[in-house]
Amino acid sequence: MPQFLTDEIQDYLKMLYGIGPDDRMFTVTKSYLHREMDRGAKEAGVPRIRIHDIRHSAVSLLIDMGFSATAIADRVGHESIDITYNYAHLFPSKQAEIFMKIRRLYENRSFQEAKDNQRLF
């Protein structure tokens, strides 16, 4: 866990009155969270999404930011990288990049060969 987050949590815990080592840090219940999601969606005029959909959005954002599947799986706690690969359709296709690199290699090689052949004549 990054130090800044550890510091934030410690500051938050100092503000809580009478919290014990086995007490919850956040007292938000599932029903409260659902009500707030309903209220927020209604206020924003957007369809309500499931709480878990926020996790999917976070994974999609990390993919879009260019992080590897391994890094994402580690970050969000996927037990297997195969779970992360369920998002494979969101990963940018590397096929075009592979093609362009091979093409550049071939074109540079062909150019060099043509140059070398000119010296022979």
What does this molecule look like?
The chain is mostly helical and 121 residues long. It folds into 3 domains: 1-48, no CATH class; 49-90; 93-121. The chain has helices at residues 3-15, 30-44, 51-64, 69-76, 81-84, 95-120.
Helix and strand arrangement:
Elements: H1 3-15, H2 30-44, H3 51-64, H4 69-76, H5 81-84, H6 95-120
Keywords for this structure?
mainly alpha; about 120 residues; single chain; 6 helices
Termini separation: 66 Å
Proportion in helices: 55-70%
Q: What's the story with the biggest beta sheet?
A: none
Taken from the alpha-carbon principal axes, the silhouette is elongated
Rounded average pLDDT: 84
- Structural class based on helices, strands and sheet pairing: mainly alpha
Total domains: 3
* Share in β-strands: under 5%
Number of discrete helical segments: 6
Short description:
The chain has six helices and no strands.
